[in-house]
RNA sequence: GGGCGAAUAGCUCAGCCUGGUUUAGAGCGCCUGCCUUACAAGCAGGAGGUCGGGGGUUCGAAUCCCUCUUCGCCCACCA
């Protein structure tokens, strides 16, 4: 036995201590190679790729939730016997990682420019090498059963080759192009961003009305409205709607740009909305996407009034040069005011884009960038959804996905960063040549003229490697065995916020390069928020560290809490100020399981889980087996429907509310020998089987404690583990409605007795007993076996004696406490009568309706004249009413005969 | 401007698609009583709900339809 295994199999401590068993158990799993997906295995594969976390990040609760969901599905499928692959890895996270390292440099008083490109990139690699193990280890701590032999990194050699291959192929197909367009620019990160990377938020802005003098010396003005007056320094025209009669006479004339003095042509363009503002738009082609297009249509100049840091550039008048854009705005307004050109200012809420990495207000900026033409890629990805090859859970996200695909825009993929995949394009430096080389392998010299060449300085958007993840991790572009076996994958689990960034693009890449969907089901988990509904974030300081939670409550408790608390697509609220409030129920449940095992395991004498077991017919045994069977079915169905919170709920209810509360209490006496050896063996066998089965059911959610207990079941060999299944599937004929009904009555009776006792108090015992006696016969019928057991144990013949014995007889006391009390419920009888009355009235009502419906259906006139739908509806109604009637009657009869 | 979602116990949420086995549930919190040989991280009980308002469909509505109110979220180039 391995040392890890030995430690893990140490005696059951008196208290549940997750920290003592989880780490050792995970090591044992790894040693046994339990999570490796063999490429030549025979079973059908089941594949989930991890959404690769940022290589230098630490695990937060969002990961905790997301990765736990993945692990639950993987562990379940693995137990079912599928070749489950949970593929782990990390993302180089271009901007995010570069920002982190830059911040550290700044603390040392340096910038990346001081270091230079090569030294800076080396610095980032150092950082990455230092931290890459951390987040992967944290995944182990929370129990993720990843195939660590297949760990990948988006910037490793193989994936970099895939990125380059994709770029070149798309370029050759004409789907990658370079062009000068307005893109979103982050002046702090000093890079272009994609549309998705600019987050738009409502902003309490102003609308400034400014007068532009006409150039004809008439002294007349045109009034324009703008939210960003500083951009007027880059104006190169004015525009009005072609049908706007108010301004028809000005089209073709010119105006003078205040503060600058440039003459601005006045053009007519349909883009202009005559209803908005004054109906005149200032055109700033270098700073607004719409203005850019107007400029193109009317051949207007472009004047780039800002630098890459969003400071006013050399082309603006001296007074504004070098000013930050917001300072420039203030200055422009002051100057306009002074010249009496500012007509008025009104409140105007509008949305402003922010950098998704640093939250700086993005600047629409004209620049030369690389783009991917998306329309052709979107078509098969959209068709896959429409044809049902790609399903979303919850379904509504499918419509969001389709909507995005239908309105797809080209993807700006170049980033002016240093950390990432360098764009595989070279430019010839020879004066007359101008050759551009796009190549899979680095060229040495210009193939056209043999002159010196220079590589494009930009890197690719981080998502340009992420979108290849489902196949680049399997060796693509090589046609590897892994690729053949594990692509396409099955289920993708991620947060809704990266639906467009990642999920949609992966589908597109899947079709473009593998000619198939990368996965068939997409699960979107919600966001983890605090108790006030705020997203957890470092800056708010409301995050919960999963490592701290694991340390205090155990990984099982955390996983259970997350799974139970977050149905798909709904946000999870956790109180960061009071971890106990959030995680105690999970920990308590684990503790309950632990204690049930502490009780049960030593009482399983003679049981050998490796051999067939014999099961008795005693009520309690039949009942718990029936309940187990139903729970198994329900849990499996819930897993198939991705309703994991339901799985948690079902297991919790069964284990605590049925197995512990009732079954264990009912068989205590028998396990001590009160019913004889045969009864003891019967109880032990059912107990062992049922407990092992629910440990298995719960294993995907709470892997540690369940496997730890299962391996201690009598007869289990050293290597025994439930990690590889089987998935519990008891005999279908264990479903036993009779036993469940009888047990239901027992529970009802006991409940009623308890209520009675509470009401009368112990002093009125004689009164209770007298009333109870009158109904003893019924109880005997229903619970003959249990009655005998209890009598044997308590050594009493009458109920009265039992009551009396309770005081001084420990055995009897235990029985009373345990819930096998033998009182016929007076209140129960009364309640049953009341119930009977209710049902009788219901029966009358239903039969009345049934009679009327039947009369209608017997009416020839109705049959002849009624439209088909009406007729069908009536027939339907008749059928359902008849069924209902029978059900009620039977229930009523059963009640009557029982009373 | 489009699209989507939510509103059920003091709090966080299930249940709704496929109407009737639910007397509308769970966990937490609250109240009462218990250290009872697996478990006080527990056990036994209890209080607390006009299922957001209104209307409709139906024999029957938390569940289906319409509408209103209040909160969220996503997308979008109206300066």
- Please provide the count of β strands: 25
The average pLDDT score comes to 81
Uncertain spans: 1-11, 756-835
What shape does the CA trace take?
A: elongated
Please state the CA-atom Rg, rounded to the nearest Å: 37 Å
End-to-end Cα distance, whole Å, is 61 Å
Derived from helix and strand composition plus strand pairing, the structural class reads alpha/beta
Strand order of the largest sheet: 6-5-14-16
Helix content: 40-55%
Report on the biggest sheet. 4 strands, antiparallel
Describe this structure in words.
Helix 3 (61-79) crosses helix 17, helix 10 crosses helix 15 and helix 20 runs antiparallel to helix 21. The two termini are 61 Å apart. The strands form 9 sheets. A 4-stranded antiparallel β-sheet has the order 6-5-14-16. Strands 10-11-9-12 form a 4-stranded mixed β-sheet. Strand 1 (45-49), helix 3 (61-79) and strand 2 form a beta-alpha-beta unit. The protein is built from 30 helices and 25 strands. The model is unreliable at 1-11 and 756-835 (pLDDT under 50). By secondary structure, it is α/β, with parallel strands linked by helices. The structure holds one RNA strand of 79 nucleotides.
């Amino acid at each position: 036995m391995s040392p890890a295994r030995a430690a893990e199999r140490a005696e059951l401590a008196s208290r549940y201590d997750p920290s003592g068993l989880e780490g050792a158990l995970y090591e044992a799993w790894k040693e046994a190679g339990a999570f490796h997906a063999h490429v030549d295995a025979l079973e059908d594969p089941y594949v989930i790729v991890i959404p690769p976390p940022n290589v230098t990040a630490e695990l937060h609760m969002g990961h905790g939730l997301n990765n736990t969901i993945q692990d639950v599905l993987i562990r379940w499928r693995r137990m079912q016997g599928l070749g489950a692959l949970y593929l782990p890895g990390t993302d180089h996270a271009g901007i995010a990682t570069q920002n982190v390292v830059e911040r550290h440099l700044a603390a040392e008083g340096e910038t990346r420019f001081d270091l230079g490109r090569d030294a800076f990139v080396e610095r980032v690699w150092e950082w990455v090498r230092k931290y890459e193990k951390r987040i992967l280890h944290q995944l182990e701590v929370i129990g993720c059963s990843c195939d660590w032999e297949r760990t990948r990194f988006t910037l490793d050699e193989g994936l970099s080759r895939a990125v380059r291959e994709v770029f070149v192929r798309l370029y050759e197909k004409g789907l990658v192009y370079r062009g000068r367009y307005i893109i979103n620019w982050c002046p702090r990160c000093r890079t272009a961003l994609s549309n998705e990377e600019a987050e738009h938020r409502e902003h309490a802005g102003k609308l400034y009305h400014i007068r532009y003098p006409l150039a004809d010396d008439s002294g007349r003005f045109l009034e324009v409205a703008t939210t960003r007056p500083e951009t007027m320094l880059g104006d190169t025209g004015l525009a009005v709607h072609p049908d706007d009669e108010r301004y028809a006479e000005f089209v073709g004339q010119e105006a003078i740009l205040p503060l600058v003095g440039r003459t601005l042509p006045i053009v007519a363009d349909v883009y202009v909305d005559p209803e908005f503002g004054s109906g005149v738009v200032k055109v700033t082609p270098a700073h607004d996407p719409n203005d850019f297009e107007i400029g193109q249509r009317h051949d207007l100049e472009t004047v780039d009034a800002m630098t890459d840091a969003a400071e006013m550039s050399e082309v603006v008048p001296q007074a504004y040069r070098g000013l930050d854009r917001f300072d420039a705005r203030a200055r422009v307004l002051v100057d306009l005011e002074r010249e009496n050109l500012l007509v008025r200012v009104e409140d105007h809420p509008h949305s402003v884009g922010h950098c998704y990495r640093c939250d700086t207000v993005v600047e629409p900026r004209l620049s030369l960038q690389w783009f991917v033409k998306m329309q052709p890629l979107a078509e098969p990805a959209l068709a896959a959804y429409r044809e049902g090859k790609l399903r979303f859970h919850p379904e509504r996200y499918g419509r969001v996905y389709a909507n995005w695909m239908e309105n797809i825009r080209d993807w700006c993929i170049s980033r002016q960063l240093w950390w990432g995949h360098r764009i595989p394009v070279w430019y010839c430096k020879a004066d007359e040549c101008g050759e551009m080389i796009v190549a899979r392998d680095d060229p040495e010299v210009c193939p056209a003229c043999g002159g010196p060449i220079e590589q494009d300085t930009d890197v690719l958007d981080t998502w340009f490697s992420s979108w290849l993840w489902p196949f680049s991790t399997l060796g693509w572009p090589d046609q590897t065995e892994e690729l053949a076996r594990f692509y396409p994958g099955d289920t993708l689990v991620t947060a809704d916020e990266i639906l467009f960034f990642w999920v949609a693009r992966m589908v597109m890449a899947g079709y473009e390069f593998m000619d198939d969907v990368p996965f068939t089901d997409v699960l979107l988990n919600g966001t983890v928020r605090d108790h006030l509904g705020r997203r957890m974030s470092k800056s708010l300081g409301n995050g919960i560290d999963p490592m701290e939670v694991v340390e205090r409550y155990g990984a099982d408790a955390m996983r259970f809490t997350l799974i139970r608390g977050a149905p798909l697509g709904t946000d999870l609220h956790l109180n960061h100020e009071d971890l106990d409030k959030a995680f105690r129920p999970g920990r308590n449940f684990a503790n309950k399981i632990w204690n049930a095992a502490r009780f049960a395991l030593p009482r399983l004498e003679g049981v050998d889980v490796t051999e067939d077991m014999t099961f008795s017919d005693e009520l309690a045994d039949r009942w718990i087996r029936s309940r187990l069977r139903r729970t198994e079915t329900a849990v499996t169905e819930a897993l198939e429907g991705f309703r994991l919170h339901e799985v948690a709920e079902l297991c919790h209810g069964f284990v605590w509310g049925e197995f512990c509360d009732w079954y264990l209490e009912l068989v205590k006496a028998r396990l001590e020998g009160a019913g004889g050896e045969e009864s003891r063996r019967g109880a032990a066998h059912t107990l062992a089987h049922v407990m092992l089965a629910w440990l298995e059911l719960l294993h995907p959610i709470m892997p540690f404690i369940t496997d730890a207990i299962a391996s201690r079941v009598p007869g289990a060999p050293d290597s025994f583990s439930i990690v590889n299944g089987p998935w519990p599937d008891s005999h279908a004929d264990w479903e036993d409605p009779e036993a469940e009904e009888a047990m239901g009555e027992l529970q009802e009776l006991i409940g009623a007795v308890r209520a009675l006792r509470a009401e009368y108090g112990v002093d009125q015992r004689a009164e209770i007993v007298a009333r109870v006696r009158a109904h003893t016969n019924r109880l005997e019928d229903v619970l003959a076996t249990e009655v005998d057991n209890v009598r044997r144990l308590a050594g009493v013949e009458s109920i009265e004696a039992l009551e009396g014995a309770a005081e001084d007889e420990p055995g009897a006391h235990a029985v009373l406490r345990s819930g096998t009390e033998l009182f016929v419920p007076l209140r129960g009888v009364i309640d049953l009568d009341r119930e009977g009355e209710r049902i009788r009235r219901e029966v009358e009502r239903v039969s009345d309706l049934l009679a009327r419906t039947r009369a209608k259906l017997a009416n020839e006139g109705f049959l002849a004249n009624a439209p088909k739908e009406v007729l069908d509806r009536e027939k339907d109604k008749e059928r359902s009413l008849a069924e209902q009637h029978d059900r009620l009657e039977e229930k009523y009869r059963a009640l009557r005969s029982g009373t």
